[in-house]
Amino acid sequence: MNAAFEINAQNRNTNGKGASRRLRRNGQVPALVYGGQRPPTTISLNHNTLLKQLEQEAFYSRILQLNIDDKSEHVILKDLQRHPAKPIILHVDLMRVYTDKKLRILVPIHFLNEDKCVGVKKGGAITHNVTEVEIICLPEELPEFINLDISALEINQAIHIKDIVWPQGVELARKMDPKFPVVSIHGSRGAKTASEEPAATAAAPAKKK
Q1: Torsions phi, psi of 143, nearest 5?
Q2: Distance in angstroms between the alpha carbons of the first and the last residue of the chain
Q3: 54 and 45 in contact (C-beta within 8 Å)?
Q4: CB neighbour class for 106 (10 Å; exposed up to 12, middle 13-18, buried from 19)
Q5: How far apart are the C-alpha atoms of 168 and 118, rounded to whole Å?
Q6: What gap in Å lies between CA 6 and CA 173, rounded to an integer?
Q7: Minimal CA–CA distance to 35: which of 91, 95, 77, 78?
Q8: pLDDT of 56-68, one tens digit each?
């Protein structure tokens, strides 16, 4: 199992709001590791290092290597609490990953070729109704994201849940309406749909001299 990121952490023996506040004042983030047959473990992470890693989209949907003192294990980011007004991470939940156990995780959707979309070139506007989906898969089959190519979409057309081709071993974690539009192209004033395009007219016959 390959990990895309490494997180260095320290065990902590003190819990509670007071202990968490002291950690934050010292540039640390209180965190919890749980999952499997082992009991939860309380740890602390370096705040600035974590904040920089969180700037990368892949960090949210990839397997992470967690180094606690002299031991390592694989985890995924399960929950994150941010300060409502400041760029501060308040708490992190990490879930242990096992090669033979399926994961339940959110992954982003990447919309490809928006600038080349047929409907957009005709004056239409793109509406993203779903930007991430929760999936179930084994760790080795975890995709970083789901790609959707929208280049061929016309005005008033959409890509629905049923149209998504899922990577091997990946399935939706929750049942969704197969006809729910993930992304659609809506016409703006003056935009022409495919059915409104003028038909090509035959050339007039040449006049006899």
Answers
A1: -85, 150
A2: 82
A3: no
A4: middle
A5: 29
A6: 27
A7: 95
A8: 999 999 999 999 9
Mean pLDDT of 32-56: 94
Which two structure tokens, joined as six digits, stand for 11? 């065990």
pLDDT digits 0-9 by tens, 181-201:
999 999 876 555 555 554 443
Confidence of residue 17 (pLDDT cuts 50, 70, 90): confident
Query: Are 103 and 62 a contacting pair, CB within 8 Å?
Result: no
Rounded to whole angstroms, how far apart are CA atoms 105 and 61? 7
d(CA 47, CA 51) in angstroms, rounded, equals: 6
All domains of the chain, ordered by start, with CATH? 5-98 (2.40.240.10), 104-191 (2.170.120.20)
Whether residue 136 contacts residue 103, with contact meaning beta carbons closer than 8 Å, is answered with: yes
How many residues appear in the chain? Answer: 209
For 200, what's the count of Cα atoms within 13 Å in the CB-facing half-sphere?
Answer: 2
CB atoms inside a 10 Å sphere around CB 37: 6
Contact between residue 9 and residue 66 where contact means Cβ atoms under 8 Å apart: yes
Residue 43 has pLDDT above 70, yes or no: yes
Contact 97, 74 (CB under 8 A): yes
% of the chain exceeding 90 in pLDDT: 78
* Contact (Cβ atoms closer than 8 angstroms) between residue 20 and residue 47: no
